[in-house]
Amino acid sequence: MDRLSATNAFEGARDDISMQLSLIWAQIKAPLLVPLLRIAVFLCLTMSLMLFIERVYMAVVILLVKLFGRKPEKRYRWEPMKDDVELGNSAYPMVLVQIPMYNEREVYQLSIGAACGLSWPSDRIIIQVLDDSTDPTIKDLVELECQRWASKGINIKYEIRDNRNGYKAGALKEGMKRSYVKQCDYVAIFDADFQPEPDFLWRTIPFLVHNPEVALIQARWKFVNADECLMTRMQEMSLDYHFTVEQEVGSSTYAFFGFNGNERDPLLIRVRRSLLFEICQNFSACSPLRLALGRYTAEVVNFEIVWKTGTAGVWRIAALNEAGGWKDRTTVEDMDLAVRASLKGWKFVYLGSLKVKNELPSTFKAYRYQQHRWSCGPANLFRKMVLEIVRNKKVTLWKKVHVIYSFFLVRKIVAHIVTFVFYCVVLPATVLVPEVTVPKWGAVYIPSIITLLNAVGTPRSLHLMVFWILFENVMSFHRTKATFIGLLEVGRVNEWIVTEKLGDALKVKASNKVPKKPRFRFGDRYTPSHPPDSTDE
Predict the structure, then answer these.
(1) Is 332 in a helix, a strand, or coil?
(2) How many domains, the chain?
(3) Does 132 participate in catalysis according to the annotation?
């Protein structure tokens, strides 16, 4: 009897607590949560529209490129380097190849070997290994590797510093101060896990030689371990969109809308008369302000930025110096330099057909650190450069609007925030607050279109779309947090953790993989001829 009464008392207390919580929830929900959630829905829908317009614009440009586009060798003057009997090798420009590294035990031989294997007159190339390693054993190994190649006649320099000030940017900046660099015209940069093909310089340098307005030739990345695990496949999907779409748009937009070439070129006339061209004109600036003012100017689309990815590219040293050289104020020194060079009027060329092998992070910890750097850096750079861009007197108002709104705000900030806040917070919250509704076009149609447009870069992974969406939603929290750290310039804003690499261990891992058993069709019977040994397990 006592147990029954105790049970009834417990249930009564539980009901009272539930009723009180329901009353508190009702009192808070109507005057506080509902208005706040409606504001959040409005802001998220606005950001979704901004991102949607940007994605559609880039999709239209890519479609134009596929239909009417010409290869960079056709858009710009490109002629193969030719021998000169009188001048000899002096007819070739002097090229510096920089390889920054930090405790890269697994990959130092790969990168140094690939750089020393570049096909170019031996007296017109300098390989510069910038070793910031803190492990004495690794430093000795890298130095011995440099000495080994030097004994083969390669002009290779082993450079070290007393400190790691500025991290990668500081190492590159220090390397450019060496006296022998003054004789160089161009500088190619490769991270420690990048392996360029021998013809890399033969395919890139002619662009710089014959087009004095071009500052940078950027190659595409080729991932050697994309099939290692599901996580690397997810990374491949994201990065392929960046190279296939974003970089291509940045390089191709000027070719379509600048029209500094022959105005009677039949190809250009066809493009300008096409419906897609008219659509792309309307979306080119991606600015509501511009649409509200009802004005059109071609200057905006003449100012696309190819995001220098920090590696696998060749810079014109004169352009690099004019832009102010490497700066270590953020963790995206490559983007910093690219934006400053763009503000000086320099152009960039993206060679999607030229691929350089490299490695994707194969652990979640390494990938998370990399994404923190890539998300925090652009936001922090935006904070530092927005006034510099506004005050710049060499570019027009519309160019400033384009780089601030489209390049920074939408692609580097809004894209991260809306993925986490809208899809992971606001939409689930509306389930608990039925008074707030999200229109179907904002909850279903726009996200679906954006997702499909992101998938075009990697058609082979379309069947992994659901996993990619889940993966991106998980990463959106880390990216959003890093974005706010960069905007507010707090905490780990300048944290630089070198991405872990496996190098030759990847080959060993691949060779040790157990071959997959053949799949059996339904209805097939399998009878083992002998009992399995214990070693088979």
Answers:
(1) coil
(2) 1
(3) yes
| Structure token digits, residue 137 | 């054993």
At residue 359, the pLDDT reads 94
The answer to whether residues 318 and 312 touch, using CB atoms and an 8 Å cutoff, is no
**Tens digits of residue pLDDT in 278-313:** 545 454 444 443 333 333 333 333 445 555 567 899
**Tens-digit pLDDT profile for residues 453-508:** 888 778 888 889 999 999 999 999 999 999 999 999 887 777 777 777 666 555 54
Number of Cβ atoms within 10 Å of the Cβ of 288 = 13
* Residues 217 and 78 sit within 8 Å (Cβ to Cβ): no
pTM for this structure? 0.81
Q: Round to whole Å and give the CA distance between 139 and 116.
A: 19
From 131, 132, 240, 328, the catalytic residue? 132
Any domain includes 536: no
Domain assignment of residue 283, given as a range: 78-363
Q: What angle do CA 173, 176, 196 make, to 5 degrees?
A: 95
Q: Which of 131, 240, 328, 334 is catalytic?
A: 334
Q: Is the CB of residue 305 less than 8 Å from the CB of residue 338?
A: yes
**What is d(CA 461, CA 72) in angstroms, rounded to the nearest whole number?**
28
